[in-house]
């Protein structure tokens, strides 16, 4: 039986960062960048690639908040004044189809139970396959080559 899923973006708690100067950003270990290619700067709030010429902030983000040893953080790009993506059930954002993806599968306690690397075009079918395992609670999607976090996929009961 097919299990439905929902992909979640992160909240936009970052707009204030765009008012900081370069020194202030650097003191927070953040960098302002101007997008010079598309795709290339995937925003984790909008779940869309930023447009060429657009300003983004690169920062470290705690994306796996858990009490397991798999707690994790890493670099992400965010765009200014974007709304959090609100995808439909079983919808996959276009930005995930364009990259080699790493899927890290976790149980309800935050322990990794599986991991896969695949071409983005295969992601929807792989998510459905992963959730055929009842122990799979959620998946964190990362860009496989740089390893950056993209989004979380939650099983829909």
How would you describe what is shown here?
The two termini are 12 Å apart. The chain is 11% helix and 34% strand. It is built from three helices and eight strands. The strands form two sheets. The chain has a five-stranded antiparallel beta sheet, covered by helices on one side. The protein has a three-stranded antiparallel beta sheet with strand order 2-3-4. The chain has one domain (5-155). A hairpin with a 7-residue loop joins strand 3 and strand 4. With 157 residues, it is mainly β. It has helices spanning 22-27, 94-97, 123-130, and strands at 5-8, 31-34, 55-64, 72-79, 100-106, 112-119, 138-143, 149-155. The longest helix has 8 residues, at 123-130. The radius of gyration is 16 Å and the shape is globular.
Widest beta sheet: strand line-up: 1-8-7-5-6
Number of strands: 8
Q: Tell me, rounded to a whole number, the average pLDDT.
A: 96
- Characterize the biggest β-sheet: 5 strands, antiparallel
Helicity level:
10-25%
Give the oligomer, counting copies of the same chain as homo and different chains as hetero: single chain
Range of strand content: 25-35%
Domains (count): 1
DSSP helix count?
3
- Morphology: globular
The ordered H/E elements are EHEEEHEEHEE
Radius of gyration, in angstroms, nearest whole number: 16 Å
Determine the N-to-C terminus distance.
12 Å
């Amino acid at each position: 039986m097919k299990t439905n899923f929902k992909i979640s973006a992160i909240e936009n708690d970052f707009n204030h960062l765009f008012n900081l100067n370069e020194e202030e950003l650097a003191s927070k270990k953040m960098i302002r960048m101007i997008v010079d290619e598309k795709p290339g700067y995937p925003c984790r709030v909008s779940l869309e690639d930023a447009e060429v010429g657009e300003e983004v902030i690169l920062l470290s983000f705690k994306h796996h908040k858990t009490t397991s040893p798999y707690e994790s953080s890493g670099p992400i790009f965010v765009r200014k004044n974007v709304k959090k993506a609100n995808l439909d059930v079983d919808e996959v954002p276009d930005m995930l189809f364009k990259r080699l993806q790493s899927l890290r599968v976790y149980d309800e306690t935050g322990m990794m139970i599986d991991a896969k690397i695949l071409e983005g075009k295969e992601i929807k079918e792989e998510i459905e396959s992963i959730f055929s395992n009842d122990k799979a609670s959620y998946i964190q999607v990362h860009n496989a080559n740089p390893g950056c976090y993209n989004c979380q996929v939650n099983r829909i009961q």
